Amino acid sequence: VRLVESGGGYVQPGGSLRLSCVGSGFTFRDAFMKWFRQPPGADREDSELVAAISGTGENPFYDYSVKGRFTISRDNAKSTVYLQMNNLKLEDTGKYLCNFGGDNWGQGTQVTVSS
Question: Strand, coil or helix: what is 94?
């Protein structure tokens, strides 16, 4: 299993970013995919679940802190899950990690929101 995230960066409050995670080594279209945020200075084990999406894309989950600002989606033909992040806030800063099956993690992509 391999997960590769991209799309992070440095953005001012109110800005937007779109994260991508490409998966391989498993049947992507059947996979329940998750995005986690690892806060600065925290261990990966303390990462917070931000959003999740089923293989069909129905009924996505969002943490209350991002609901209405973030959108999770997927393109099974490209084995890719996305996280569109709008109206970013300072507290959204962290390393964003893609996860599948609980034990499979990408290397993460850093998002820094700062004025």
Answer: strand
